[in-house]
Amino acid sequence: MAEPIIAFDGVHKVFEGSNRVHAVDDVSLTIDAGEIFGVIGFSGAGKSTLVRLVNGLEPVTSGRLVVDGHEVSALSEKQLRAVRPDIGMIFQQFNLFGSKTIAENVAYPLRLAKWDAGRRAARVAELLAFVGLTDKADAHPSQLSGGQKQRVGIARALATSPKILLADECTSALDPQTTREVLDVLRRVNAELGVTIVLITHEMDVVRYLCDRVLIMENGRAVELGDVYQVFARPRAQVTQRFVAATMRDKPSADALGRLAATHPGRLVTVPIVDDAHTDAERSSVFARHGLEARVIYGGIIEISERPYGSLTYAVTGADTAVDAALADLAGSGGYTEHDRATLPNSEGHR
Ligand SMILES: Nc1ncnc2c1ncn2[C@@H]1O[C@H](COP(=O)(O)OP(=O)(O)OP(=O)(O)O)[C@@H](O)[C@H]1O
Description:
Blueprint: E1 4-15, E2 21-32, E3 36-40, H1 47-54, E4 62-67, E5 70-71, H2 77-83, E6 87-91, H3 102-112, H4 117-130, H5 146-158, E7 164-168, H6 176-193, E8 196-201, H7 204-210, E9 213-218, E10 221-227, H8 228-233, H9 238-248, H10 254-263, E11 267-272, H11 277-284, H12 286-289, E12 293-304, E13 307-317, H13 320-331, E14 337-339
Parallel strand pairs: 3-8, 3-9, 6-7, 7-8
Antiparallel strand pairs: 1-2, 1-4, 4-5, 9-10, 11-13, 11-14, 12-13
Helix pairs in contact: 3-4, 3-5, 4-5, 5-6
Bound molecules: adenosine-5'-triphosphate.
């Protein structure tokens, strides 16, 4: 079983000043060695602060934080400097030195760690090969695309072979295609080098593509934490439901249902996809089994953690008693939602 590499126990971070801000509010959780752990939340939720506590960029106000066996909440700045090479970090704005070449940027932490020139050159070559930028060694950051710059950031963060990589909105400045390339590099960092990744994002798409588990933060608090599929399939907190809805768009809005109701007769039923081959087969034939006609009028299915997730909305026509019987079957095997035509906007017309 994987061991926790990061453990928060009742951790608080308060910024004192003219406006006192409780940026991290009583967070207790563990992150296992080797996992890709996502942290999601709206602006100001406390994500960056939480992650900056891990490498001691911000000191903990109270509570206990243990990182790779070190109680960072109790270390002095000098002691923290000894721990930091074990923790790499990448940033939204890449934070490269514009006046240095790509190779010099990657070599920078090795200089700080007092590696000699020969070892440095060999390590930089290895790192640039890993991120696919060997041919850019002598270029300057301004000559690179955003995705290439972030790959340099990753190479630099990995220079001292850290066990943990912190990624703060590392794809937020990138387009979707480039985002995918950077996330693929991070996946290799995790799979091939065994590095634990803690990734902050405000995009559920990034979480579902990369992460094993996800933490949702709001007002400094850890409001929901779970396996990515579980959090998507059954979001509990309102803030989580908003993130999932923004990504999925599989469920019609009331306006869309109103328009669909005006042109499609029958009862309107949304049926979630259930990731279980047997149950799913039962559910997809339920209307036909009851002699009903069911037309798909809305829906969406995506893959999360290599499992299908989403829902389909049907207009179901046939005898009411048969529809009720079909819905009773669905209720027993994973649920459904029926939309009442009377409550929909502009829904006069069919029933
Ligand atoms: N150095 C600081 N001094 C005072 N307040 C701070 C400091 N750093 C962060 N804060 C405050 O702490 C709260 C959490 O900020 P934080 O940057 O951790 O949130 P976030 O979820 O990462 O937001 P974003 O997505 O905008 O980066 C905010 O109210 C912020 O203004």
